[in-house]
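Weekly modeling sync, notes
Attendees: S.R. (lead), two postdocs, one rotation student

Agenda item 3: backlog of single-chain predictions. S.R. asked that every request posted to the team notebook include the full sequence so nobody has to chase files. The rotation student volunteered to paste the first one in as an example of the format we agreed on. Action items at the bottom.

Example entry:
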Amino acid sequence: MYIVLRRATPNLMPTTENLQRQHQTLQTMAAEMIRLVGRPRPEVAEVRRALARFSGTLRLHATMEEDALYPRMFASDDPEVRHAAERLHADLGGLYRMWDDFMDRWDTAEAIENSLLRFRFNLGRVLFKLGIRMRREDNELYPLARRGSSWPPDGEGDSTHRM
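Predicted structure, as returned to the notebook:
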């Protein structure tokens, strides 16, 4: 999905606590973007910079989940863990592709300025869907990932990595 980030962080193993902190960071950043774009006359260059920062943070988070958390859960000996991860991944599949399409569509401040109402609508829609994913991971996936002594794996992990 995000090949450059995968190459840059091949052995980074997040803890669920770190992933949840990243969710909190992303939610704060999303609220700031909504605040910026909700102004009567938003400074579109500022909005676009906030969007780029959010996207970078989201991509790092997605790479950590997709390359570390989900594969370990898919390989779990516990069928409940494995099936829950598979179900959640399938239910939420395509969301990062949707984000990439959104970023491609709104790649400049000029694009945002030229269609501000459409941008506001699209931003709200994609942030809402990302919020649903984060809540489901926090409430359904991470508790299962923490269950037992297998997460994070012994000797692995970087619980000090922060976004």
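Discussion: group reviewed the output briefly. The helical segments are 3-8, 16-37, 44-74, 79-91, 95-105, 109-114, 116-146.
Action items: rotation student to repeat for the remaining queue; S.R. to check formatting next week.
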